[in-house]
Amino acid sequence: MAFRHLARQHPISPLAIGALTTGMILFPHSTLHAEEPRQDHLARKPIYEDLTPLRQPPKSNPTPSEKPSMSSPTPTDRLAGQIRHVRLFIHAHSVAVEDRINAFMSSALHQERAFTQTIASLAPPPETHERIMPGALYVLVAAMAGTIISRNRNILLRATVPIAVGIGAAWVVLPVTSRNVGDLIWTYEEKAPIISLNHLRIRGVIEESWKQAKVRGEATKKWSDEMVKESREAVEGWLKKEK
């Protein structure tokens, strides 16, 4: 009705009415304005463009509060870290224990090897024809005899006589073995200078005493031979006179 009223007041040509109807059908949501403001002055560009670049403000380092916050570890991550520490701790201590056991076994094997080699070095060579078993029994019997001899003596003689008799018997019965034992004892005595010096002094005194005893024994033997010879000659001369 309004459209008919407007058509009566303002006569419009049928062509305009058709164009308007077609536009309403094709563009139902478009709004028609009677007059749009011209915006040509907004789209115009200046004739001379500014060649100097715009100064940008310096970039400032972000403060700790502005840094992106890291996400806190989850309970699973903390548990995994604790398990890792425990595994590393157990592994380190197990390796240390294994190293100590290996070192102890190596030391024990070295000591065993050294002991067996030392015992083997004390044995006499086969070319000496020296036997350990009978000689050791003879030395033991001699030491027991020294104990019997010094049974009623003072404590000093009872402690020293069996040892001295046993050592003397060992040097007589097992000379090579006794020398090997003496060399072994000397190697241990060299580690203590005081003991080695005292040993050398005592050994020097014993050797000197042995030499003096040998000299005196030879002199005594010579004197006894001369006395026997003189006595025999005297007896033979007396017998000749009697005849």
From TrEMBL:
It comes from Lepraria finkii. PANTHER family: MICOS SUBUNIT MIC26. Residues 62-75 have a biased composition (Polar residues). Residues 48-77 are annotated as: Disordered. Keywords: Membrane, Mitochondrion, Mitochondrion inner membrane, Transmembrane, Transmembrane helix. This is MICOS complex subunit. Component of the mitochondrial contact site and cristae organizing system (MICOS) complex. Component of the MICOS complex, a large protein complex of the mitochondrial inner membrane that plays crucial roles in the maintenance of crista junctions, inner membrane architecture, and formation of contact sites to the outer membrane. The keyword rRNA-binding does not apply. The keyword Transcription regulation does not apply. It is found in: Mitochondrion inner membrane. The chain crosses the membrane at residues 156-174. InterPro entries: MIC26/MIC27, Mic26_fungi.
